[in-house]
Amino acid sequence: MHLNERIETFISLGNQIGCLIKEHSRNQAIGDSKIPLDTNAWFTARNVIYALENVSRLLSSNSLNKWLVNYPKLTNYSKSKSVGLVTAGNIPLVGFHDVLCILLSGHRLIIKHSSKDEKLMEWLLKQIIQINPDYSNFITAESNHLKNFDAIIATGSDNTSKYFEYYFGKYPNIIRKNRNSVAILTGSETVEELQMLADDMLLYYGLGCRNVSKLFIPENFNVQRIFEALYAYHELINHHKYANNFIYNKSIYLMNKVPFLENGFLILKEDEGMDSPISVVFYQKYNNIKELKEKLNFDKEQIQCIISKHPEIEEKIFFGEAQKPELWDYADNVDTMNFLLSLE
Fold this sequence. Notes:
- By secondary structure, the chain is α/β, with parallel strands linked by helices.
- It has helices at 3-27, 45-58, 61-68, 96-104, 118-131, 158-168, 191-202, 224-229, 240-255, 289-298, 336-341; strands spanning 82-86, 108-112, 139-141, 151-155, 173-176, 180-184, 212-218, 261-262, 267-270, 280-286, 303-308.
- It contains 11 helices and 11 strands.
- The longest helix is centred in the first third of the chain and has 25 residues, at 3-27.
- The model has no long low-confidence stretch (mean pLDDT 94).
């Protein structure tokens, strides 16, 4: 299959998803949708549609060509290897970018779905095959163990990554561990910027590695400003799983007399850690940006992205953009396409 045909397939996929989203919007009042919206309790209709909107946005001709022009080797690359993919299931379609890279590079995909995201990802793969039936020869799903692969891409927790390294270490691999995202505030943020930060914190219930789980705030910052900006998310507490986490964490902190702040649906806790539990965001005060940068550099293996407008933070993204990565924004800053094009 020629590269142009592969690219056109995904452009068509983006257009098709866009049409299905519009159809869903017209029909949602009567509960009619061709999109699977009941895959698990965390994948609400709003979150699934948001994830699909981002997929559709990424699969425009302009975005694909802007991304792929950086890989001249791709034009004549003809090695077709079998690449195993073990996906995470923390947010809807979190493994799609890996799927896209594998199939666009001309390799065969052998995928082990996360049970949390299986129905949605299977549905998306069927859309690809429907658009281009030749892809039926390039996509295989394994329900148990992966086998007959030449390379592996696997994403999981710190614990599962040890398992991955043990079983897959002898193959060319990308193995991703748990990461979290942080925001660095200056105190000069506008109301609108803090409202966009609320998206970075609470979209997908804060379950994504690009969700902000830790805030760095100036010594004199008024934390109540954050609570005021979060109001659009007050209905999170009506989600039973999220509410259970909120009640549990609040109870634990109260019983242990741990200081915290809360607004009825989110807990802010002063903590040096990065990985906050669901319904909790850690915060830490700073007064020296140089020292903070040194700390972030020391902890860089734990950090997925940094949200800030601080002029002294070089590698940062703006408020509201955490869950809108571009095609060239690789997880863990590991260039997946370069890895795939290096397979011989």
